[in-house]
Amino acid sequence: MAPFEALYGRPCRSPVCWLEPEDRLTTGPDVIQENDEKIAVIRERLLSAQSRQKSYADRRRRPLEFQEGDFVLLKVSPRKGVTRFGVKGKLAPRYIGPFPIVQRVGIVAYRLALPPELSHVLQKLEQYLPLLENLIFHVNLVSSNRQISQWTANLKIQWSSALCSSSFFNLRSPKFFQIGDLKFELQMMLFLYGAILRQRAVEILPENLVQSATLFREAAGLYRHLADESFASLQQHSLLVEKPPEILPSVSTVMNLICLAEAQAVTIRRAEEKGTSISLLAKLHHGVAEFLDEAAVILYAAIGECKDISSRFVEFLSSSRALHRLRGQKYHAESLKTAGKVGISIAVLRVALTDGKRQMPGEESWKSTYRKEIDDTAELLRKIEHENGFVWREKVPSKEELPLCEGNKIVSSIPYQPKRWERELAFKI
Question: Are residues 331 and 241 part of one domain?
Fold first, then answer.
């Protein structure tokens, strides 16, 4: 007996089987044919309704594509009680600009040239962190006082996680975490500071490679500080069901390795511009992949400890690692060909293509870049195989006989030096 019939004492009528309660149900092939006909009518009407609603929505929508140099407005999300752009709350602007497009980085993603005044967030963080460090220092001095302990215990500090949002490092998330600890505020603030340094490094990458690499190294040093100097009081909250990934030392270590990998990737771009040898470029790309390999091992262990890490963050890590490994193998094959080892060069390219196609990223913005690298590698393989077939006729070894290309890590993090506002605080107890 169905739950509806048990509750109301009569069978439920539906568009599929619209019968009176006293009617006897049809059984056998007839009911199957009747159900199929009704389902066909339902699908037809659903498609009609969807098409009608789509026509209404399309009246105010059109496909838009922008080019470098176009000016566009930037949408910002006002938050209740927060002052932004000089206006508080719901009166804050929803769009700011216009700003010029400096680069297209995806199908619907563009990099904008933002004015210097929008960098005030970084400046405010650099002013706030010494004050916070000083406050925590003086609170620790009088931590034995009962009133101070009660005051700190009643704190309700709430943060959203940059690693839990749907897009990697969107710096905003609909999910909030709350831990009543001043050191939680400091930990999250330092993590945010590192994220903004990394974001700034990405923004200035097309203009200044040296400064971009420096910012990546500074962010790496900050995350190294967070991983080494993790607060014991925050680890007491590790038993919480929901906790932000930022308080885990392992996640800070992962971010340290990612920033080091990005700094070395910027260094590779400078080396390519200077005409560095192909063999060294291959080792540098493999060095980036080794940074990311180490980060991936730590991240997968951290996912078991904190399941709120964004899937796009994991995708970013795996896609970057596959891309640099493919580029490293391509440069390695070119260096082998230059050294006269044509057969080994062909084998390296074949293995690179097989592994590369198996690791194709799922995100569309990554696919275009990765597919282009696959096509370039396939074209290089075709040329070397053609040359080997007509000129060299060298034997192509198997995968097990290939020499390994060792990576070379040449970048290091810039150590973070905590700054404390040197002024004594007095508490009214």
Answer: yes
- The two three-digit tokens of residue 367, written as one number: 């696919």
Pair 363, 371: CB distance under 8 Å: no
pLDDT in tens, 178-215: 666 777 788 888 888 898 888 888 878 888 899 999 99
Residue 77's CB is within 10 A of a number of other CB atoms, namely 9
pTM, full prediction: 0.70
In angstroms, the CA 77 to CA 94 distance is 6
List the domain range (segments joined by +) for residue 78.
71-112
* Cβ-contact 254, 302 below 8 angstroms: yes
Q: Which helix (H) or strand (E) holds 134?
A: helix 120-141
> Residue 123 contacts by C-beta under 8 Å, 6 or more apart in sequence?
none
What one-character-per-residue DSSP string does 274-318 give? HT--HHHHHHHHHHHHHHHHHHHHHHHHHHHH-TTS-HHHHHHHH
CA-to-CA distance for 301 and 234, rounded, in angstroms?
19
Report how many domains make up the chain: 3
